[in-house]
Task: structure prediction
Amino acid sequence: MDQDYAQYLLKKTRDDYNAIAEDFSSSRYSIWPELNIFGAYIENGNRVLDLGCGNGRLVELFKDKNIDYLGIDNSEKLIEIAKTKYPNARFQSVDALKLPFPDNYFDKIFSIAVLHHIPSGELRHQFIQEAIRVLRPGGVLIITVWDLWRRSTSIGLIIRFAFSKIFGKSKLDFKDIFVPWQKKIDRYIHCFTKGELKELLKKSGFKIKEARIFKRKETKNYNICIIAEKLDKID
Result:
């Protein structure tokens, strides 16, 4: 993907989420029940980064833990909502591609349904590189992305955008689509496979501890989830 267009898509995604922040937050009023099991990875005293925190709902996963939590998002409107909903938690508006934190700072990083919004292989690699930079050796990343390959409606979109690419009518990469939100905006999405996400993490220096597909009971949508550990040394 042309990097000027990738930068345009990054700005579009931020602007889109600022525009729909109130409606989006109303539809994300609690954490996914399927994520509750990941609370076991958090220990008292951990520094935890919620990378792409949205309205901050993941805070509920840690309510019984004594941790140093920080939620970041590039949507200023969602950060405002998060601060209102969870006044005792810390939130900042931050660019995930340029994290303002020192190396080896966090013990755990969560990134829930964020990476598929990052356009181009180069920027997705940069996203993961920044995450591993600020994670301490032996620290754990828990990351999820949408799995749109298991939905018939999404397959139709993937095929349509692929044909547009083949015939030179799209600036997107293959496996990139736009997904509408309540007929208000079209959100950029990269359609990950589990193998693709695993390979991206391994190339960046992560050891894959667990990789799974889980189905949301409420929406019947599928998600790819990977739990990965930062190696002490990167080959």
Notes: The first strand starts at residue 47 and ends at 51. The first helix runs from residue 3 to 19.
